[in-house]
Inverse folding.
């Protein structure tokens, strides 16, 4: 049996405790970040156009691996400084991860709970190792402290594996439009609703069908603004959201996109939304095509 199947079963079996713990964590983290959307956005990485957590997680893994090497070649002072730096980068990764976790649902939340539990356990083991090293000094007995940091690295690696699953297996914080193609061809657009004059209703989003794609349409007078209906964050239909000041807000986690160009102006999405040009069709109706990103 491939190794990943064994790991997957083992991780899935943690759902019994991970689900209720994840729901509990989600409640207090959402309450913590809701009043400070600008800080949450900073931690999600909207300013970077990329999830910040995935950038920061690489640092502690590399640093803690270096710690194992430094312990192995008996460089106590360099090892201790590396451990302090590694713990600091783990804390930074934890804060950004907590912001993403507060907007994660379903099975990805369960797996993210296993991931974060392992990371907290690794952090505690590393803190114990640091305390023992500080007590022993560079020339003292460091066997247990070094042993603890090796255990910490094993837990860290296991946590990184589960974190990888949250992204690569469940697509959490991956753009929902990663594989969406675009075409220069104008295609007939079919709004799901029309008003009594045969036009697209004004003042609220309306779903429209464009070939295999669903769009969220917003009419401003004669102008029809259109973005893809599937929210870049986790796929919720934007046509169920609200329109305000030239933006459309996702009804699920509140990501907000500018209708004129699809730019994300509030997270948790860190990705823009595909935007479409719409025009009147000869003979009646509308046609649309995706604007080049
Ligand atoms: S699905 Fe999460 S903000 Fe839209």
């Amino acid at each position: 049996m491939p190794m990943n199947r064994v790991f997957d079963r083992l991780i899935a079996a943690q759902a019994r405790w991970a689900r209720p713990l994840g729901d509990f964590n989600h409640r207090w983290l959402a309450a913590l970040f809701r009043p400070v959307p600008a800080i949450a956005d900073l931690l999600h990485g909207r300013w970077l156009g990329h999830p910040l957590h995935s950038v920061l997680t690489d640092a502690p893994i590399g640093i803690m691996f270096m710690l194992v090497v430094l312990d192995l070649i008996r460089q106590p002072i360099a090892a201790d400084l590396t451990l302090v730096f590694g713990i600091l980068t783990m804390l930074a990764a934890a804060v950004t991860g907590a912001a993403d976790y507060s907007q994660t649902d379903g099975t990805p939340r369960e797996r993210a709970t296993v991931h974060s539990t392992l990371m907290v356990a690794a952090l505690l083991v590393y803190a114990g190792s640091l305390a023992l090293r500080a007590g022993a000094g560079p020339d003292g007995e460091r066997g247990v402290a070094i042993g603890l940091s090796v255990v910490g690295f094993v837990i860290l690696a296991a946590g990184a594996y589960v974190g990888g699953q949250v992204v690569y297996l469940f697509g959490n914080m991956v753009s929902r439009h990663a594989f969406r193609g675009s075409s220069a061809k104008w295609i007939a657009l079919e709004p799901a609703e029309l008003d009594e004059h045969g036009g697209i209703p004004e003042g609220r989003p309306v779903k429209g069908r464009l070939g295999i794609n669903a769009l969220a349409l917003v009419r401003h007078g004669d102008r029809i603004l259109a973005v893809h209906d599937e929210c870049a964050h986790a796929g919720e239909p934007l046509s169920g959201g609200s329109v305000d000041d030239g933006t459309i807000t996702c009804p699920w986690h509140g990501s907000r996109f500018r209708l004129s160009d699809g730019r994300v102006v509030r997270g948790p999405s860190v990705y823009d939304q595909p935007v479409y040009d719409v025009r009147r069709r000869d003979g009646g109706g509308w046609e649309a095509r995706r604007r080049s990103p």
